[in-house]
Amino acid sequence: MRDLEETLRDAVQDLADEAPHAFDLAGAARIQGRRIRRRRHAAAGAFALILLSIVTVPYVWLRPEPRTPVVQPAPSVTVRPSLRSLPDFTIKAPYLLPGNAAVTMVTIPTRVDDGADENTYVALDRDAGRYRQLPFDHAPLAVSPDGERFAAEVARNRIDVLAADGDVVDTLQVDTFSSAGGAPVWSPDGSRLLIPTDGGFAVYETGTGEHRDFPNPDIHSLCSDFCSFSWLPNGREIAVPRRDVSVRRTEAHPDKIEAVIVYSADTGKRVRSIPTIGVPVGNGAWSPDGGTVLIREVTDTSDGIRVVDAVSGVPLSELLAGPDAIYLADGRILAFGNRYAQIHAADGTLVEEYRMPRQFADGTTVTVARS
Amino acid sequence: MRQSLEDEFTAFVAERGQALLRIAHALTGDRETAQDLVQGALAKAYARWPRIHSDAEAYVRKIIYNDRASAWRRPARRNEVFVAEVPDRAAERRHDQDVTDRLTVRNALLSLPARQRAVLVLRYLEDRSVEETAEALGCRPGTVASQASRALAKLRGMVGDRITSMGGAR
């Protein structure tokens, strides 16, 4: 009597052997492939038309921020600020959100039926004081703080550093960790690029054009399923979430995070650990005084952003809405998505609430930097 | 697209097309569906060829597996083969026991959910490791292991006790 696996192996081989003979696969694929390309270009063109159709809307500066200090409402009274609409987005001038945070890039997903992420990007050209459509569609795309450099994994294990006109400034061969969502991240001053790798992380120096690998198998194996890397404001340390290894992993639930581990980007060594249950929301997650961090908390029962102590990890606020958030220069928090923007006090209290412009339609991602 | 890239695409299809069709046929059990699956994957590869040509086969294989494994999400489940019962072995024209076993397992295999079948094809046709299978399907190694385990358990249930031994996947 044969083993089931042995029989299965033979059965699968039999099925494969019965495959039809290839006949003009290339020709047929070409015709279909060109159709896919046309659809993709049409989608990108449609977005450009949308932008062009709105450039005639006069740019209106946002209302000034309140000059008086924000008064926290009494505990027994719930005061929800009225919702105000922000002016239309235009490519003709930098678009400022409340708190003087600038929209640095608008990402429009381009639907491609091969399931690949592909986007149309409109990025702020700070010198020209207006937005430009980028001539590439790599996803995910990291934009440098000055808006002049971009980085993306353009082929397996190949990261290109690109200029806004599409010129390839540098090409890096690294064993990327992109399968887990580890996209490259520019340092706060734009002098370095953090690249999550299969074996740890790599740091590319724009000044020298060199990159260094920092192997650390724990980073990969202990990272949570929402495995996003970010820089600390000093530009010399990075933060990586670590899952709770005592909890059995299952596809049915998000990983339970037990800490954020801080590593040196100079040596690759572990610097410290912050016991917390979320992932820093990005480079803008750290308060100007370094005392608090904005973490994304994803559990079976909650999905939002919370202020936590940067040392102890103790939660200091209720959950804030919004898929993204940054600390503003004055210590307040801007939480935002493509539909709403909210200003919160440092303790998380909601202060102002705005409706995003209609041009940031569903599916659009807005990248924001504090001024 | 530059002529050199066009030529490269043609050469790639000429060289690897048949191997891709073998995978697709093992996944679908249907010649026409297999051809559609491979052609669709190649079309997507062609549309992105300048970017993916350096790693084209992995890209195309990934699309084939994912397109097939996600087919259940689509409303029309055409080309799925459902076998409510194991075919009557007496009806088989071949009497060799091994061949009968293979046909039985083959029919049972084709009745599995697409994702489980994809896992088994990767593991038993392509001899991919759990990690490689996970990467191809875009899931965790643990998911591959559990899908393979469930698939084998279903096969065992479907083919009955006659084929009994059930070693773990390699």
Automatic annotation (TrEMBL), chain A:
**Sorted alphabetically, which Pfam families does this protein's record hold?**
PD40
Q: Which Gene3D superfamilies match?
A: TolB, C-terminal domain
Give TM segment ranges.
42-62
UniProt xrefs under InterPro entries: 6-blade_b-propeller_TolB-like, WD40
Q: Which UniProt keywords apply?
A: Membrane, Transmembrane, Transmembrane helix
| Domain of life of the source | Bacteria
Keyword Iron assigned:
no
Can you say what this protein is called?
WD40 repeat protein
Organism name:
Actinoplanes xinjiangensis
Source organism phylogeny = Bacteria, Bacillati, Actinomycetota, Actinomycetes, Micromonosporales
TrEMBL record, chain B:
Q: Which residues form a coiled coil?
A: none
Q: One Pfam family name from the record?
A: Sigma70_r4_2
Q: Name one GO molecular function term.
A: DNA binding
RNA polymerase sigma factor 70 region 4 type domain residues: 104-155
Positions of the RNA polymerase sigma-70 region domain: 15-77
Keyword Protein transport appears in the UniProt entry: no
Keywords from UniProt, A to Z, are: DNA-binding, Sigma factor, Transcription, Transcription regulation
A biological process (GO) annotation for this entry? DNA-templated transcription initiation
Q: Organism's domain of life?
A: Bacteria
Q: Which SUPFAM superfamilies match?
A: Sigma2 domain of RNA polymerase sigma factors, Sigma3 and sigma4 domains of RNA polymerase sigma factors
Against PANTHER family, the record matches this protein to: ECF RNA POLYMERASE SIGMA FACTOR SIGM, RNA POLYMERASE ECF-TYPE SIGMA FACTO
The text of the family note is: Belongs to the sigma-70 factor family. ECF subfamily.
* Name of the featured protein: RNA polymerase sigma-70 factor (Sigma-E family)
Q: Which organism is it from?
A: Actinoplanes xinjiangensis
